[in-house]
Amino acid sequence: MTPLPATDALKPMSPIQARQTREFIDGLASEARPYWDMVEIGDELSRDLHLSAELVILYADGVEDFNPWYEGWRMNSWHVEGQSPFGQAIVPPLLVSHFVLSVQFDATRPFSIGSIHTFHDSEILEPILVGTTVRITTRAVEKFEKRGRRYVRHAVEVTDVEDNRVYFRETRDILSL
């Protein structure tokens, strides 16, 4: 009988979990590549995201940003317009930035190893109302080396799916092995 791999004593694993974890790690080792090698300048990916009241609540609670401007819900009523200086409730301004990585890293490609988000510059153009569906688009615009390290720069744009209004832009760099 083959001995089970050592696991963290605080998180005991069943034999099936240990095998699945080992298979996953072995798969990463065989398929993973540096991000630099996986991305070409001009590569563009996008994803639509519905900014529901529930998503706003989860984000605001997670970052402890308790602002009544974000409250597009009420207990036992759930969806209400809410209030802010912009009319109804708005989305926390950097919530969409949080979701950029879920667009940048294409789930159809092998897992990228050694990637670190090292820089971003965000431009908030106008508030996004709770309940809006946005399209997050990221485009690889530059590859460069600095102090012997390789970086991929992305331009990000967040637009309204209905009228293409631009809400948010961001430039971000990913350091790659």
TrEMBL record:
Specify the domain of life of the species encoding this protein. Answer: Bacteria
UniProt xrefs under InterPro entries: HotDog_dom_sf
Q: What is this protein called?
A: N-terminal of MaoC-like dehydratase domain-containing protein
| Organism the protein comes from | Brevundimonas aurifodinae
Q: What is the lineage of its organism?
A: Bacteria, Pseudomonadati, Pseudomonadota, Alphaproteobacteria, Caulobacterales
